[in-house]
Amino acid sequence: MVKDLIKIYQDRRSIYDLGTDIPLSSEEIVSLICDCVKHAPSAFNSQSGRVVILFSAAHHKLWNIVLSNLQKVTPADKFAATTKKIASFAAAAGTILFFEDEDTIGSLQKQYPLYKDAFPLFSAQSSGMLQYMIWTALSSEGIGASLQHYNPLIDEDVTKEWHLPQSWKLYSQMPFGKIKSAAGDKEFMSISERVKVFG
Predict the structure, then answer these.
(1) To the nearest whole number, what is the mean pLDDT of the chain?
(2) Which residues, in sequence order, are CB contacts of 146 under 8 Å at separation 6+?
(3) 50 phi and psi, to 5 degrees?
(4) H-helix or E-strand containing 180?
(5) pLDDT in tens, 152-199
(6) Half-sphere exposure of 72 toward its Cβ, with a 13 Å CA cutoff?
(7) SS3 state of residue 188
Protein backbone atom coordinates (compact mmCIF):
# COMPACT_ATOMS: atom_id res chain seq x y z
CA MET A 1 0.00 0.00 0.00
CA VAL A 2 2.82 2.43 0.86
CA LYS A 3 4.48 1.57 -2.48
CA ASP A 4 1.20 2.39 -4.25
CA LEU A 5 1.06 5.74 -2.47
CA ILE A 6 4.66 6.57 -3.39
CA LYS A 7 3.86 5.68 -7.03
CA ILE A 8 0.98 8.17 -6.94
CA TYR A 9 3.38 10.83 -5.66
CA GLN A 10 5.86 9.97 -8.41
CA ASP A 11 3.23 10.18 -11.14
CA ARG A 12 2.11 13.70 -10.19
CA ARG A 13 3.98 16.04 -12.52
CA SER A 14 3.55 19.46 -14.08
CA ILE A 15 1.65 18.86 -17.32
CA TYR A 16 1.43 21.76 -19.76
CA ASP A 17 0.02 20.13 -22.91
CA LEU A 18 -3.59 19.73 -21.82
CA GLY A 19 -6.89 18.97 -23.56
CA THR A 20 -10.57 18.88 -22.70
CA ASP A 21 -11.33 15.15 -22.97
CA ILE A 22 -10.95 14.01 -19.35
CA PRO A 23 -12.07 10.70 -17.77
CA LEU A 24 -14.25 12.32 -15.07
CA SER A 25 -17.45 14.34 -15.41
CA SER A 26 -17.67 17.89 -14.09
CA GLU A 27 -19.71 16.58 -11.18
CA GLU A 28 -17.04 13.99 -10.33
CA ILE A 29 -14.32 16.64 -10.52
CA VAL A 30 -16.27 18.89 -8.14
CA SER A 31 -16.86 16.00 -5.72
CA LEU A 32 -13.16 15.06 -5.74
CA ILE A 33 -12.10 18.65 -5.06
CA CYS A 34 -14.69 19.11 -2.31
CA ASP A 35 -13.39 15.99 -0.54
CA CYS A 36 -9.88 17.42 -0.65
CA VAL A 37 -11.02 20.82 0.65
CA LYS A 38 -12.92 19.15 3.49
CA HIS A 39 -10.02 16.98 4.64
CA ALA A 40 -7.02 19.26 4.01
CA PRO A 41 -5.08 19.97 7.21
CA SER A 42 -4.98 23.51 8.55
CA ALA A 43 -3.52 25.22 11.61
CA PHE A 44 -5.92 25.20 14.58
CA ASN A 45 -8.41 23.50 12.22
CA SER A 46 -8.99 26.98 10.78
CA GLN A 47 -10.21 25.61 7.43
CA SER A 48 -9.08 28.84 5.79
CA GLY A 49 -8.72 27.38 2.29
CA ARG A 50 -11.18 28.49 -0.37
CA VAL A 51 -11.52 27.14 -3.92
CA VAL A 52 -13.27 28.29 -7.08
CA ILE A 53 -13.72 25.73 -9.88
CA LEU A 54 -14.10 27.07 -13.41
CA PHE A 55 -15.42 25.13 -16.39
CA SER A 56 -16.36 26.05 -19.96
CA ALA A 57 -16.98 29.78 -20.51
CA ALA A 58 -15.84 30.70 -16.98
CA HIS A 59 -12.56 28.83 -17.51
CA HIS A 60 -11.93 30.71 -20.77
CA LYS A 61 -12.92 33.99 -19.16
CA LEU A 62 -10.19 33.55 -16.55
CA TRP A 63 -7.44 33.11 -19.12
CA ASN A 64 -8.76 36.08 -21.11
CA ILE A 65 -8.44 38.10 -17.89
CA VAL A 66 -4.89 36.84 -17.43
CA LEU A 67 -3.93 37.65 -21.03
CA SER A 68 -5.50 41.11 -20.88
CA ASN A 69 -3.59 41.97 -17.72
CA LEU A 70 -0.34 40.53 -19.04
CA GLN A 71 -0.61 42.64 -22.18
CA LYS A 72 -0.38 45.75 -19.99
CA VAL A 73 2.98 44.71 -18.53
CA THR A 74 4.61 42.52 -21.20
CA PRO A 75 6.98 44.06 -23.78
CA ALA A 76 5.46 43.98 -27.26
CA ASP A 77 8.23 41.75 -28.65
CA LYS A 78 7.53 39.13 -25.95
CA PHE A 79 3.76 39.13 -26.16
CA ALA A 80 3.42 36.49 -28.92
CA ALA A 81 5.16 33.94 -26.70
CA THR A 82 3.01 35.00 -23.74
CA THR A 83 -0.15 34.59 -25.83
CA LYS A 84 0.90 31.06 -26.82
CA LYS A 85 1.57 30.12 -23.21
CA ILE A 86 -1.79 31.40 -21.99
CA ALA A 87 -3.55 29.65 -24.88
CA SER A 88 -2.09 26.35 -23.64
CA PHE A 89 -3.78 26.88 -20.27
CA ALA A 90 -7.04 27.93 -21.92
CA ALA A 91 -6.98 24.67 -23.94
CA ALA A 92 -7.44 22.68 -20.71
CA ALA A 93 -10.74 21.32 -19.41
CA GLY A 94 -10.96 23.73 -16.47
CA THR A 95 -9.12 25.73 -13.85
CA ILE A 96 -9.07 25.64 -10.06
CA LEU A 97 -8.43 28.89 -8.20
CA PHE A 98 -6.94 28.63 -4.72
CA PHE A 99 -7.59 31.28 -2.06
CA GLU A 100 -7.07 31.78 1.65
CA ASP A 101 -9.68 33.64 3.69
CA GLU A 102 -7.91 36.52 5.40
CA ASP A 103 -10.88 37.15 7.72
CA THR A 104 -10.38 33.66 9.16
CA ILE A 105 -6.67 34.33 9.61
CA GLY A 106 -7.37 37.70 11.25
CA SER A 107 -9.81 36.11 13.67
CA LEU A 108 -7.19 33.57 14.73
CA GLN A 109 -4.64 36.34 15.22
CA LYS A 110 -7.01 38.02 17.65
CA GLN A 111 -7.80 34.76 19.46
CA TYR A 112 -4.17 33.68 19.75
CA PRO A 113 -2.00 36.82 19.84
CA LEU A 114 1.07 34.80 20.80
CA TYR A 115 1.02 33.27 17.29
CA LYS A 116 -0.13 36.42 15.50
CA ASP A 117 2.91 36.75 13.24
CA ALA A 118 2.92 33.04 12.39
CA PHE A 119 -0.67 32.71 11.13
CA PRO A 120 0.00 34.05 7.61
CA LEU A 121 2.76 31.44 7.29
CA PHE A 122 0.45 28.73 8.66
CA SER A 123 -2.14 29.81 6.11
CA ALA A 124 0.33 29.60 3.21
CA GLN A 125 1.39 26.13 4.37
CA SER A 126 -2.23 25.00 4.54
CA SER A 127 -2.85 26.31 1.03
CA GLY A 128 0.19 24.45 -0.26
CA MET A 129 -1.07 21.20 1.24
CA LEU A 130 -4.53 21.69 -0.28
CA GLN A 131 -3.04 22.45 -3.69
CA TYR A 132 -0.89 19.34 -3.50
CA MET A 133 -3.80 17.17 -2.36
CA ILE A 134 -5.99 18.25 -5.28
CA TRP A 135 -3.14 18.04 -7.80
CA THR A 136 -2.25 14.52 -6.66
CA ALA A 137 -5.91 13.43 -6.59
CA LEU A 138 -6.38 14.63 -10.18
CA SER A 139 -3.18 12.88 -11.25
CA SER A 140 -4.34 9.63 -9.67
CA GLU A 141 -7.40 9.81 -11.95
CA GLY A 142 -5.27 10.31 -15.06
CA ILE A 143 -5.84 14.07 -15.24
CA GLY A 144 -2.93 16.41 -15.82
CA ALA A 145 -2.42 19.81 -14.20
CA SER A 146 0.10 22.54 -13.52
CA LEU A 147 0.31 25.29 -10.93
CA GLN A 148 0.37 28.91 -12.10
CA HIS A 149 0.75 32.21 -10.27
CA TYR A 150 -0.66 35.26 -12.04
CA ASN A 151 -1.71 36.84 -8.78
CA PRO A 152 -1.69 39.62 -7.69
CA LEU A 153 -1.92 40.91 -11.28
CA ILE A 154 -5.39 39.41 -11.80
CA ASP A 155 -6.76 39.56 -8.25
CA GLU A 156 -9.08 42.54 -8.63
CA ASP A 157 -10.61 41.34 -11.90
CA VAL A 158 -11.12 37.79 -10.58
CA THR A 159 -12.83 39.05 -7.43
CA LYS A 160 -15.08 41.33 -9.46
CA GLU A 161 -15.92 38.80 -12.20
CA TRP A 162 -17.08 36.06 -9.83
CA HIS A 163 -18.37 38.33 -7.00
CA LEU A 164 -16.01 36.84 -4.45
CA PRO A 165 -15.53 38.13 -0.90
CA GLN A 166 -12.82 40.77 -0.56
CA SER A 167 -11.28 38.68 2.22
CA TRP A 168 -10.41 35.86 -0.20
CA LYS A 169 -6.73 36.23 -1.16
CA LEU A 170 -5.79 34.51 -4.42
CA TYR A 171 -2.77 32.20 -4.14
CA SER A 172 -2.60 30.21 -7.38
CA GLN A 173 -4.33 28.90 -10.47
CA MET A 174 -4.37 25.26 -11.57
CA PRO A 175 -5.43 24.46 -15.16
CA PHE A 176 -6.31 20.78 -15.52
CA GLY A 177 -7.22 18.49 -18.39
CA LYS A 178 -6.39 15.54 -20.57
CA ILE A 179 -2.68 14.69 -20.66
CA LYS A 180 -1.79 15.20 -24.32
CA SER A 181 1.99 15.05 -23.77
CA ALA A 182 3.62 13.47 -20.73
CA ALA A 183 6.15 15.31 -18.60
CA GLY A 184 9.80 14.81 -19.52
CA ASP A 185 12.54 13.28 -17.41
CA LYS A 186 13.20 14.96 -14.09
CA GLU A 187 16.60 15.42 -12.49
CA PHE A 188 17.01 14.89 -8.77
CA MET A 189 19.62 16.14 -6.33
CA SER A 190 21.37 13.53 -4.25
CA ILE A 191 18.98 12.69 -1.42
CA SER A 192 21.90 12.81 1.02
CA GLU A 193 22.11 16.56 0.37
CA ARG A 194 18.49 16.98 1.38
CA VAL A 195 17.93 14.55 4.24
CA LYS A 196 19.93 14.25 7.45
CA VAL A 197 19.33 11.44 9.96
CA PHE A 198 20.47 11.47 13.58
CA GLY A 199 19.97 9.12 16.49
Answers:
(1) 97
(2) 14, 15, 16, 18, 89, 174, 175
(3) -130, 145
(4) none
(5) 999 999 999 999 999 999 999 999 999 999 999 999 999 999 999 999
(6) 7
(7) coil
